[in-house]
Predict the structure.
Amino acid sequence: MEQTLSIIKPDAVQKNVIGKIIERFESNGLRIAAIKKIWLSKADAKKFYIIHKERPFYNDLINFMVSGPVVVMVLEGENAVTKNRDLMGATNPKEAKPGTIRADFADSIDANAVHGSDSLENAKTEIAFFFGKRAIF
Ligand code: ADP
Ligand code: MG
């Protein structure tokens, strides 16, 4: 059993498709172990995406992530990290396979609907960034 971090980004929250996205997780064997809706501070967004700080899109990414509230979740299930990444689809929605979350709900590489941890190790760090042990069930 694995846990991974998922974020429904501001574009998808604004589109009112939180439920539709969560349905993808639940109907594919992932369970919501923790969930909250929050508006990230700029400091938090910068810290969360610190691994991208040298990338040309870093500032745009931070500004986008603080442009509205997000939904942060811990997803739990067998191979949760890979399963979530598969359900999300490619970073660029134009390259995402039909039926993936990004193909169906995202408009651009910047506003791409969801975040998902890319490894078990990063999942642990990202989960701890948002949730204490007592908030995960
Ligand atoms: P993923 O979210 O698929 O793991 P990355 O970790 O590579 O993708 O990038 C983090 C986020 O930064 C992406 O989800 C996307 O919002 C943004 N991003 C990545 N690459 C680009 C790019 N070339 N131009 C603009 N934004 C980008
Ligand atoms: Mg990533």
Notes: Residues 118 surround magnesium ion (ligand 2) (CB under 6 Å). Residues 10 and 25 are 18 Å apart (CA to CA). Strands lie at 2-8, 31-38, 70-77, 114-116. The chain is about 40% helix and 20% strand.
